[in-house]
Amino acid sequence: MMKRSAQPTINDVARIAGVSKKTVSRVINRSPLLNGDTRRRVEEVIANLGYVPNPQARALALRRNFLIALIHDNPNAQMVLNVQQGLLEVLRDTEFELIVHPVDRGSPTMLEKLGQFLERQRPYGVMILPPISENEHLAQLCEQIGCRYVRMGSAPFAEGPHMVASNDREAVRGAVGHLIAAGHRRIALVMGPHGFRSAFERQKGYEEAIEAAGLPLQRTLMVAGDYRFESGMRAAEQLLDLSPPPTAVFSSNDEMAAGVLHVARERGLNVPQDLSIIGFDDTPIAAHIWPPLTTVRWPIATMARAAALKLVGEPGDEEAEASLFVSTLVRRASVAPPGEG
Amino acid sequence: MMKRSAQPTINDVARIAGVSKKTVSRVINRSPLLNGDTRRRVEEVIANLGYVPNPQARALALRRNFLIALIHDNPNAQMVLNVQQGLLEVLRDTEFELIVHPVDRGSPTMLEKLGQFLERQRPYGVMILPPISENEHLAQLCEQIGCRYVRMGSAPFAEGPHMVASNDREAVRGAVGHLIAAGHRRIALVMGPHGFRSAFERQKGYEEAIEAAGLPLQRTLMVAGDYRFESGMRAAEQLLDLSPPPTAVFSSNDEMAAGVLHVARERGLNVPQDLSIIGFDDTPIAAHIWPPLTTVRWPIATMARAAALKLVGEPGDEEAEASLFVSTLVRRASVAPPGEG
DNA sequence: TTGTATGCGTTATCAT
DNA sequence: ATGATAACGCATACAA
Lengths: 341, 341
What we know:
By secondary structure, chain A is of the alpha/beta class. The first copy, chain A, has 14 helices and twelve strands. In chain A, the strands form two sheets. A six-stranded parallel β-sheet of chain A has the order 2-1-3-4-5-11, with helices on both faces. A six-stranded mixed β-sheet of chain A has the order 7-6-8-9-10-12, with helices on both faces. Chains A and B meet through α4, α5, β2, α6 and α11 of A and α4, α5, β2, α6 and α11 of B.
């Protein structure tokens, strides 16, 4: 029976500690009914041997893997990465690993495939990113399969244990309020794509700020976009052709804001003197374009950490209780009072 | 024994097909010694039942998981994400899943921890990103443990089956050559951090291009950076204080190039009229700043796909043979002939 | 509080 | 070419 070459198993621990496998198993799984002495003795052997339970065997016996799955579809790259970082900060030094599973929203078999994935892989928990997180069927699927899940979104559309949300509406209200406070009266909105909760919330935030200031809501100042650079350019062209053109624009994300900036520059406009711009996301682009972009930063990594804690944390963890996170306005150089209009 | 509720198992298939478990197993694993009739019959039952082998059980029996691990440390976000996309394109619709495992280069226990990770998780294969991919000990570790691996880098520093490399040196030679062809003679280099192979290769490419043109290699025109925006700014300040200042600068990545652009703008310089700039990476930033940045694009996603194929593909796959990939110069608006010097 | 026997779903060994 | 039986390493039911 010489196979001491590889990892020690639960049998080795049991034999050396002079107890049964089951007792070792109890120590590992923190069973409450266990003699303190026995526990200490076993723990010592475990430490000496450097024993770590075999994840594959555990997964088979428990019918549950020690994996956290990140499910997303087509959000911006920076967000996915920030989420991964936040998740991994919590998962680091735990027995959990992160598995990334993109899906094709729009595919008719998406739910079916995801169901197969969950039933096969049996992850310990899943983190679902927007916009696919808004899909109620997906949440129900997790529920049915009995898989823990946390949804991320721009508004709290689920219960606390299953949700990490930012307050996009409020944040945008603040951002547009900042424009109004600077003296702007003709403020445009570049919207996100139809059907996205984030786009909806940001639009609402804009509308509420405009109305709160007693300003008229003008449809011509609200133009559609799809969160991409090019759509920001198209929106800017449409907006700057207006007479009079807006003196400021709030863009529902940074990438479109960069597009607006691009067009403004092409037309010889000075930002912010001739046109103020505010974006949303605080991507690296925002700080690196010229002028540096005033934008809304949402605490993605913090939200991801909280989500991971909800998924794998001990109950009662304070940090895991939070499920609403506030975004803040990052003031840089793309906002100024309006010029002579 | 009523548990037909869940997934069908290999036993169900065997019973219905009227064969033994082992035979089903042989079908699944494409064993060559198998009667064609039997195979077809079993395959039919498998299809009818929608049977899929349980990954956890396979992992336990095979002592090998059907996971591909992406190991990286602190490279730029865009690269990690592009790699993930490339990898996932190949892994999609296979039995493999992607698991992301960042490491802390510099930590003295890094190798040890990684060893534990590999022995515990037993991934089917690992993809190692630069700069940690340059660590020979890590490669040896994979070798010892018997884990397939592919290293990614800026030069082919390993054998084909274990390497996907770009030709940074040649690409930079071309980029700097482009500057020289435009008439520049005082061309600066913003270097990457010491110890990075990519930084080294890009520097060599610069030097080779300068020397090939019969130009003098001037140390004052070669300034250190660390691949971050701020270091690009510091480099630019140092460079633009020179008299005469350079008429063009090649930056070893886009982020630093954006920093150079930033400082040039602060000093009232026009780009490209007063200063031409070329970057490296073709990150989204490059296309979205003003002026759009001429830069070197390396085919990260393609490299990642090839790596995935090396890891999980059938032997003989042509696409999996490739291990050197060419980067190309993307000409945008940040290069012009030098003004009156 | 602890141990025994058995199951999880697959693959490997060694028969036939 | 196929099958019976034993791993694989851990957890659970039930007994002690």
